[in-house]
Amino acid sequence: MLRLGFVGTGTLVSAVIDGLHATHGDRCTILLSPRSKETSEALAARYANVERAESSAAVVEGSDVVFLGMRPNQLDEATAGLPFRPDQTVVSFLAGVPHALVSEKVRPAGHVVRVNPLPPIRLRKGPVVIYPANAIVEDLFGGLGDLIVAGKESDLAAIANGSAMMSSHYALQNSIIDWLVSRDMAPETATHYVRSMFAGLAAVGLDAFAKGEAVDPAHHETRGGLNERGRRYLTEIGWFDEVGRALDVIEGHVLLASSRR
Known about the structure:
This protein is α/β, with parallel strands linked by helices and 261 residues long. The chain contains eleven helices and eight strands.
C-alpha cells in the first residue's frame, strides 16, 4: 500500500483526496494533518482509508509521498522541524512558490514535484499540471483529469495566471442565466441549459485538441447569424482585448506580491 500524507488540509486538498480515493482508494492509505480540523475530520469520517494524524510530524513520519497543501505564506512555519527523509517524494500545491525553495524547506526529501490542481479534480476533470516529470506523481494524478507535464517551471506561473479567470468564467455564465430569467425563463431551466451548453463546448474543444485541430470561432457560427452578430459586437467594443489586459493585471499583481516576500 502506498502511504500518502497531507500537510495542510483545505478545500483544494479535499478535492484532490476525493479524486484520489476514486482512482487509488484500494491501494493507498492517507494521513491528514489536523489543520484544518473541520475538513480533516470530515474526510476521515467519509473514507475508511483516511486517518487524521495528531501532528504534521506524524504525517511526514508515516508517509511515502507528502503533499504540501498549506497557504504559500505558511510554508516556513508549516515545514519547520518536520522529519523528511531522502526516500520521500514531496508534492507541492503552493502556487507561486519556486521548486528550489520548496526543495530547500523539505530537505533531505529526495524528489520534489510542483502540481497545479484545480477544483474540478474532485470530479476527475480538468487539467492537472506537474513539474518536473515524476513517475510516481504522474501515476497518482494520471486518472484525475488531463495530465500536463510542463516543459519548464515558468509554465506553471503562466498557467496559474490563466487559471485566475475561472471565477470570470462563472460570472459570464451567470450573466447569461440572468438574461434568460429576465425573459421569463424559469431559473432552474436557464441554469441547467447554460451550464450544459458550456460543458458541451468544452468537450468539443478538447475533442478538437485530441484530433490536432484548431478551434476557429468562425466555424461555430453562421454568416449573418446570431453567433456572428454577438461575437462581432464584442469584438467591436474590445471585449476580447480586455481579457488579455485582465491577465496582464493578474500577472502584475503576482509579481508585486512576490517582490514583497
